[in-house]
Design a protein that fits this description.
Strands 1, 2, 3, 4, 5, 6, 7, 8, 9, 10, 11, 12, 13 and 14 form a 14-stranded antiparallel β-sheet that branches. The protein has one helix and 14 strands. With about 270 residues, it is of the alpha+beta class.
């Protein structure tokens, strides 16, 4: 038997193994990039609940959504607010379609120390993404720099994608309101500095944990909101670092996965 005939199966096996390992690496990298995008999407979807309450808590201004406010005998607080986007949905700024209900229970104006805002959701969707969970925002008064500070806790957070895949989220954050306080009824000039942690399960069924390692800047005047800051995510032995940039309003972030850097463009849900 010729030597070439003996070597051929070995060569084919080695080639197959190399191709398989390369494909597996590529798929792992794609999954990790997807995890970073999903993290940003979930964060923004839950942050958006406060904006909706700010827009509609004082009554229905547009006809869609329909807003119902239940006041106590001695108004204005505590109040129970139902923001109903209906089954057909309402199109908001930037083309987002919301359906279902956001329910807000509020003890006082959100910038007053000790006030608590509790958000629950009833069959609530944003552009076909089903959002569930409880979000509680507590005003802790002013910090050492005389800026209003809130603690934000998300429990039982869950986002179901149109393909049926799910991500979960539990989060504990501190939010500092550092611009826009002098115009309390104009929410689009507000800027917040956010720190904290989050954890959950990604769409691939893997556990993840995250920490904001450089404060996130949340800019209400920007369509993409997240304009600066760094988040570190760990999942299944991998480390993902998301750098949202220098404050420029764009959907670009630098993602470093196990030391390898790439540029990605986040979606707008």
């Amino acid at each position: 038997m010729k030597l070439s005939n003996l070597l051929l199966p070995v060569i084919l096996f080695v080639a197959f193994t190399l191709v398989f390992q390369s494909c597996k690496k590529d798929n792992n990298e794609k999954d990790l990039v997807q995890t970073s995008e999903d993290y940003a999407d979930a964060q923004e979807l839950f942050n958006d609940l406060s904006l909706q309450a700010n827009l509609y808590e004082n009554g229905d201004k547009t006809g869609c959504p329909v807003v119902t406010i239940t006041f106590p005998e001695s108004p204005p607080f505590p109040r129970h607010i139902v923001i109903d986007f209906g089954e057909e949905g309402c199109e908001g700024p930037h083309g987002r379609i919301r359906t279902g209900k956001i329910i807000v229970d509020q003890t006082d104006f959100y910038f007053n120390e000790g006030s608590v805002r509790t958000f629950t959701l009833d069959d609530f969707y944003v552009n076909d993404f089903h959002v569930e969970g409880i979000r509680e925002v507590t005003c802790n008064g002013r910090n050492a720099d005389s800026l209003i500070q809130h603690s934000i806790v998300v429990t039982e957070g869950k986002v179901t994608f149109p393909d049926g895949r799910v991500i979960t989220r539990e989060a504990s954050r501190t939010r500092v309101w550092f611009e826009g306080e002098d115009t309390p009824w104009n929410f689009y000039d507000d800027k917040y500095r956010i720190t904290g942690t989050a954890s959950g399960i990604n769409r691939f069924g893997d556990n993840y944990e995250s920490e904001i390692t450089e404060p996130i800047i949340f800019d209400m005047s920007c369509i993409y909101r997240l304009v600066q800051g760094v988040v570190t995510i760990t999942t299944e032995g991998h480390t993902i670092i998301i750098d949202y940039g220098d404050g420029t309003c764009d959907n670009i972030a630098i993602v470093t996965i196990d030391g390898e850097e790439r540029t990605i463009h986040f979606r707008r849900r």
